[in-house]
């Protein structure tokens, strides 16, 4: 525990560890874990180290590996939107560890709703996203002001279940089956009449989106209870309509177009 506390202080001084609500905790209240790396073939212990993972989920902690990085985060409730709107989830953290050197590369409180999802070189931390190797927030240009604002995606309505993805698309529940085109930053598209399961059953594989039945027995009333497979059908005429969600100033306007029908 002392070793983890000392390392954390050094990371804070170097700007690698961004402090959050956990800074108010007493040292004895820190969530210190022993991280162990094993050889996948022999099971031999390669290394182990104590690490302060406060804010990374506690008993709901999860891990994921990508491009040499080991991430620690929380598998949190699917019904925390009320707490999120009240700014009560700002303590939820991701810590990234270099799997070879065992060094912490970054650790940030990221104020996310559900289990984070790695997609290429970014992490979806609903409703936003950050860079995999730095934890820096991803941004995009505001369509009216032209200024850089945090990237966000929309999930209105009842929304149990976590987000899944292909290389270019997000899949999740938003009342029904929801699809967001990440490559073109375009959405929200809904496939109605059927609902995803309460955990994870929207699976992207081999150019298909597969959704095995997972709603039978639920109190949510939807007319279609079956398995399905969706395949991408390129649009003959690509439209430019999308739901753009952002916060902050809407002025001064750099570009504004009005559709009068």
Automatic annotation (TrEMBL):
Gene3D superfamilies: YVTN repeat-like/Quinoprotein amine dehydrogenase (2.130.10.10)
Protein name from the UniProt record: Pyrrolo-quinoline quinone
InterPro entries reported in the protein's UniProt record: Quinoprotein_ADH-like_sf, WD40/YVTN_repeat-like_dom_sf
UniProt lineage: unclassified sequences, metagenomes, ecological metagenomes
């Amino acid at each position: 525990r002392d070793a983890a506390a000392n390392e954390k202080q050094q990371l804070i001084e170097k700007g690698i560890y961004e402090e959050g609500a956990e800074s108010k905790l007493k040292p004895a209240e820190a969530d210190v874990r022993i991280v162990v790396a094993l050889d996948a073939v022999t099971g031999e212990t390669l290394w182990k180290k104590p690490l302060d993972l406060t804010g990374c989920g506690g008993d709901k902690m999860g891990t994921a590996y990508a491009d040499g990085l080991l991430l620690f985060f929380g598998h949190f409730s699917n019904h925390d939107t009320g707490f999120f709107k009240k700014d009560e989830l700002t303590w939820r953290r991701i810590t990234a560890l270099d799997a070879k050197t065992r060094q912490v590369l970054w650790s940030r409180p990221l104020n996310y709703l559900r289990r984070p999802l790695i997609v290429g070189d970014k992490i979806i931390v609903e409703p936003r996203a950050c860079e995999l190797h730095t934890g820096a927030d991803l941004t995009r240009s505001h369509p009216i002001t032209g200024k850089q604002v945090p990237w966000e995606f929309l999930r209105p309505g009842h929304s149990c279940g976590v987000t899944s993805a292909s290389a270019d698309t997000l899949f999740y529940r938003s009342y029904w089956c929801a699809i967001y085109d990440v490559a073109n930053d375009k959405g929200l598209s809904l496939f109605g009449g059927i609902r995803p399961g309460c955990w994870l059953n929207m699976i992207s594989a081999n150019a298909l989106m597969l959704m095995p039945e997972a709603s039978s027995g639920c109190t949510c009333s939807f007319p279609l209870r079956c398995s399905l497979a969706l395949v991408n059908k390129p649009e003959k005429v690509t439209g430019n309509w999308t739901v753009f969600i952002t916060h902050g100033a809407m002025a001064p306007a750099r570009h504004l177009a009005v559709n009068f029908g």
